[in-house]
Structures are given as structure tokens and as C-alpha cells.
Structures
1.
Amino acid sequence: MSMLACSYSGYWISDLLNDNYILRTPQQVLAIIVGIILGLLIGFVVGGPVGRLTVNIFDELELAFHKASGINILFGFGGALAGLVAATFPSIALFRFGYPGSVASVVLFLLSGFIGARIGIIKRSELSVIFKVSPSFALSGESRAIILDTSVIIDGRIVDIARAGFLDGIMLIPRFVLSELQAIADSADALKRSRGRRGLDVLNAIQQLDNAGIEITDEDFPEIMNVDDKLTALAKKTGAPLATNDFNLNKVAVIQGVKILNINELAGALKPVVLPGEDMRINITRAGKEPEQGVGYLDDGTMVIVERGKKKIGSQVTVVATSVLQTPVGKMIFSELSEERPET
């Protein structure tokens, strides 16, 4: 393609020279032939790099579209279209200035389209509210919406999970959850006030992510007074999963058929698996409930109970896991001192 384009360019330049009578009739055919040959040679030289560059550009575009969510593509396209429309009238005036005006008009169109697309993607949450894009529409795209409750917002780990790419798309914040969070942030109690403000900071952090955004939904259930019951009803109506750390809400919602994303369960699933017989290095920090027991913790917070470890409080020791107990609140590892384990 590059060789054909360059050869045609050579022909066009030669023909332009002929139209201006720079060349005489015997020279015209030769000029056209020379122009075509030069165009082919230039195309042969630059065709490879240009072709590879073109392929790379299209590959990057394909990869970008593959990663982008449907809602981002929609608002990006809408923003680009709005930018092109906005550039139409200034471009009409620029065309009156001849060739420089035409070049400026093309540049204006490109910049306006790009800026409009970026604004559409960055401000998609606000635009979805203005144009009444429903939560069910967000659910029909490539990435699903997730309803966040107050506990998971204040917890804050949802931001790191989304930033790592494990969650993306729209995160639905019901207006009644936002009001509850605001009430906590305005509390007279210093601890509650700190937790509430942390939750608001978490929402701001989510809005800054490229792969996620926040949509405030005014969907409410006036006949339901309890916030947990409202969240369950909203999740059932929209079909969106509910992210929560509330143990009781988790149980009640699951009974009613709501899909739950529990951050604590996720954290537990990501803890390293410890099998009986494995060695561990821990610090024994306190005495256990049983006589002579010591208690230490792994880096992920898992409790390790050490038989006859009380005498090692304050020391770092090597222990051998003997059994692992799974409880509703996490894992407990029972172990004994490696130095006291009988050799086999």
C-alpha cells in the first residue's frame, strides 16, 4: 500500500509540473515515469517501517477497546461526537483562510474530539445521572455494577482491589448510604467522625480510578426503614452484587438470594495456606488461654497458638503447625515449638 501511494504521489507531482508547463511534451512521459519509479523506490524504503507502525497503532487500539468497559466506550464516543459538533462552526470560519485554515480546521477537529472523549470518560458518573442512565443499563455491559454498603466504604480496601484490576465498572452508592456516611462524618464522636471522613475519602479515590467510577442512585424504598433491608431490596431489584463487611447483612442477604462480595472473606481466601508439618517463624507475644500456651501472629494476622510456648514470650521462634482450625472469623493454627518436636 505504501508503494502504491508513493508511486501515485510521484505521478501526481509529475502531472502537476506538466500542467504548469514546466516540462515540454517530450519530457512529460519521461517525467511521469521517473516520478512513478521514484515513488516506488520511496515506498519500498519507507513502506516497512510505516507498515509496522500502522499495525502497532491498530494493535494498541484493539487492546485499548478490549480493556475498556462498555460504559466507557459509550460515554467516550458521546463526548467525542459532542466535541466534533462544537468544532464545526469555528472550522467553517477557518476554511475561509485557504490552505492554512484547512490545516487548522483539521487540528481543531482532532483536538475537540479527543478532549470531548476524555471528558465523557472522566465525568461518566455525573453524566449518567444527568442523562438518567439507569443502573440496569450499566449491568448489561461488559463489566457489572456493584452496590457498596457503608461498612465496605469505610473499610477502604475496595479501592486497592479495584486499583489492582479485580473489580471494575460502576460502583452504585444509594443515596441513603451516602446520607448515612455523611451523618457518621458529622458525628460528635471523634472516632465515628474519623471513620466517616475516611469513607468520603474512599469515594473520592474511587472516582479517580480509570477502570471504575461511582454512580449515586436515588432508588429508595420508603416503606422500608432499615438501611440493610433497603440494600437487600435494591440488590434484588437490580441484580447487582452487594459488597459488604457486615456479617449479619451478609447472612440475611444470602438467604434472600442476593450475591454478596465480602471483603473479609476475600482477604481470608488470599492468606497463605499452612499445612500440618510446615515450619513457621513467629514472635510469641502473649500467653494463651490454656496453661503454658503462647500466642503469636503471622504477617497476615492469622493467630498461631503454640503449645508450651509461654516461656518464649517476647522471642522469635520456629514452630511446626500441627493442625489448622477454620472459624467464622478466620483461621487459627495450632503448633508446637520446633526444638521440642520429637525427631522422626
Note: The first strand starts at residue 146 and ends at 148.
2.
Amino acid sequence: MNRSIVSTVCLLLCIGLAHAAPPAAKPAADKALDAALPKAAASACALPPKVDPFTFWDSCKDVRMNGCTLEANCRKADGSWRNATFDMNKFPQCYSDFFGGRNLVNRNGTLCCGYAGTPQICGT
């Protein structure tokens, strides 16, 4: 009986794999656009995502873009606020975490990217 259950499961898996749809191909226009744009262009001059629990979004306010410069009022360790900026042209150069990707953090009122043990890129 166990052998027939195993055989049935294997048969169902094989049928499912045989009928699985192949991944959809990208339209030619999308492929041409991907080839024309540098990979860094997608993340440059845009606000970073709100995905990391240790992000600047939790301790900065009035976040805005001024051209390619991110501007925000960020809280310092003493509780005061500081106007901070970060040149988003540098964001693609930031080290990327395997799980979270690139992100900015508030380091005592200064916006920086990079992770522990990696070089930091900081704004003003």
C-alpha cells in the first residue's frame, strides 16, 4: 500500500512538472529598454524603499527629493533635529545587504549607507 501511494505521488508530480508553463518571455521593447539603461539608473535619484527596520525613515521627517539630493530632518542621539542631505547619485555605490538590499540609515543626524564592516558613504 505504501508503494502505491509513493507511485501515485510521483506520477502526480511528474504530470505537474510536465504541464508547468514556461516563464513568460519579456517583450522586445522591455529588453531594448533594459539594455539601453545602466543598471544603476533604476535606483539613482529616487527615494530608497521603506523595507529595512533600521532605516532612516524611522528617525527622519520631512523627507523630500531636491533633484538627486535627498533632504530630511533627522533626529540626533541627544533628541535634537538636524537638516541632513544625501546625494542619491552615490546610492548605487553603497554596499548591499543580501536580504535587504541597499538602504540609508540615520547616524546621529547624518544620512549614511553601508553595513557593519563595510565602508560607509555619508551625506552632509
Note: The mean pLDDT is 74.
3.
Amino acid sequence: VFSISTQFTILFFPLKLQPFLRNILFNNSAGDTVFFNEKRELEGGFDIINWVTFPNKSFLRVKVGKMDPQAPLGSDFSIDEKIIIWHQSFNQVGPNC
């Protein structure tokens, strides 16, 4: 499961983030391996999950989008900002967004 905020621009990755992304390797919920190949292209897709935490410390995982590198260009990344529930402490966009 991989989570990403809507404020993060997926169209390009800042230079500070590239060393971390180079080493990403995990299995998605379908059992497919997700990683970046030698050309720094994403291999395998994944869902974008919003973890909603409740006052009693329970949580709910809500699928808010997906990344599918095999989909046609323009359909490879989708996110539904309207269904994201932000924690009350996230009240502004980060300085790098």
C-alpha cells in the first residue's frame, strides 16, 4: 500500500526524492512487483490509499486513486481529491509543494 497526498506533483519528482524512489520495491495488492527499472520507468501499478484515522484510534483505508503505467497516456495516474479526508493537523500545503 502506498499513500501520496494530492499536493504532491506526480508529473515530475523533485531531485531530493529521486534517490528514495530509485530503491522502491514492493508488491501491490494484486501481488505484482512494483519498482523503477533501469530507465527510471515505473514497472507495475498501485492504488493510492487515504488512511482515515478516527478518535478511537481505529482507521479505514479508502482507495482515492491509482497509478497504472500500462494504461494509456493520460489515464496512467488518477486521483479523486473530493474523497480524501485530511487529518485536522494538515491545514496547509507543505513548503515543497
Note: Residues 56 and 82 are 24 Å apart (CA to CA).
4.
Amino acid sequence: MSNKVQNPNQGGSKAFLWAMVAVVVVAIAVVAYIVVNGQGAKTAFVAE
């Protein structure tokens, strides 16, 4: 009964990459939301 030593990074790198992609997507969404809100505030100010 022998247990092979496995590389802890093997297979886990995909999960890490997906987590990084998710973080980047959320960051882009937050920035886009802030920019859109800023544009709306500017137009409301100009319209006054």
C-alpha cells in the first residue's frame, strides 16, 4: 500500500485561473458601474 506524492499545484491551477478571471470581471463591472453613474450625474448637471 503505497501512496504516490502528487504535485499540489496540479489541477489546482485551473481553479486559480478561474478565480482570477472572476476577480477581473467583477473589477471591470464595478469600474463600468462607477463610470456609467458618473456620466449620468454629469448629464443631469448639464441638463439643469
Note: The mean pLDDT is 79.
